Give the backbone structure.
Amino acid sequence: MKARFETFTVLIAKISRNIRKIKNREMAEYGLRSAHVSCLYYLYLSESLTATDLCERCEEDKATISRALDFLEEKDFILCQSKHAKRYNSPLSLTEKGRTVGKQIVDKINCVLDEICNDLTEEQRLAFYHSLAVISHSLELCVNGISKAKTMKKTDSVG
């Protein structure tokens, strides 16, 4: 049992740490950190997002996103579209500089994903992502104090 726990937690921690290191290394020339990269990535994929949207997509807290947005706005990567409403609910968009860096971020992410999936078949890759989604959902249930057994009983009694 101990080896299973250690293997699981160590591998998840290593994956997370390596993703953060790759983000930081690849964006060092722009002075960007991991949270900045995530914000630029999601803004590049969308026309505009609010800070609230970015918190949800980046899986970061309000303070982290707020600091990241302050930095990105100060360095002319993003623009707050409304000067009247609170910034947290105001649409944010990329400047030309932000779009250029956002494109580079997307390209680098695709390159890294291609590299790490080289040794996996499409079937293995899909099974891996499915497994990650199941693990993530199960952990969320654990965090919220909900057991799968309780969830299944509720589902059975409804059906």
About this structure: The radius of gyration is 19 Å. The mean pLDDT is 87.
